[in-house]
Amino acid sequence: MLAVAARETRHDKTLRERRCIVTGDVLPEKKLVRFVVGPENDIVPDLAAKLPGRGIWVSADASLLQRAVAKNLFAKTAKAQVKAAADLPALVERLLVARLQDHLGLARRSGVLVTGFDNVERALTGRRKPALLVQASDGAADGFRKLSSLAASQGLEIPVLNVLSREELSVALGRENVVHAALFPGPLADRLALDAERLEGFRPRNNTGRTGPNPVPNERQE
Hints:
Layout: E1 17-19, E2 26-28, E3 32-37, E4 43-45, E5 56-59, H1 62-70, H2 73-78, H3 88-110, E6 113-115, H4 117-125, E7 132-135, H5 141-153, E8 160-161, H6 166-173, E9 180-183, H7 187-200
Parallel strand pairs: 7-8
Antiparallel strand pairs: 1-2, 3-4, 3-5, 6-9, 7-9
Helix pairs in contact: 1-3, 3-6, 3-7, 4-5
């Protein structure tokens, strides 16, 4: 099951399609990562797709990116002697995590995000419904099931972001032990959903089917 359920955002209609240099598949940009050749002829990730230069696109999947590095596909595509670091998949993962954390921090400061199980529960039953739920990848499954059941009882189909750990969420939001959060509709929720879908391709699944480490039972969760 995808960490972020498929849904149409305001950006989907304007996203262009690109060809992955590994598989040859033509995909929407939200399912790919853009790279450019840097000043030192090194391959530079361009997650925002704004850096100058010809874009080189790879599916948002760690194994495919590693194949692109191992088979020297960046040099073949660029038709130049370019250098792709062996740890490029790990770098992209770190950059995606940082990007998600920046989005979350901005959402908190903008007042469009609530944290804590009780606050998320109130948001689900309130007049203004969340557009995105956030669940720590290593949070206990019980809280996730309760909130999912509550959303279903309200007739809501809300995407769930569960690609970040409690520690990563806590750093992003400046609070300890953050497990549950919810974002209200707007551009930040859309950006988080898109980047979380890409990050999922760089994170292994645990035995619950979610990304990240196995959950710790019976913890006190916010």
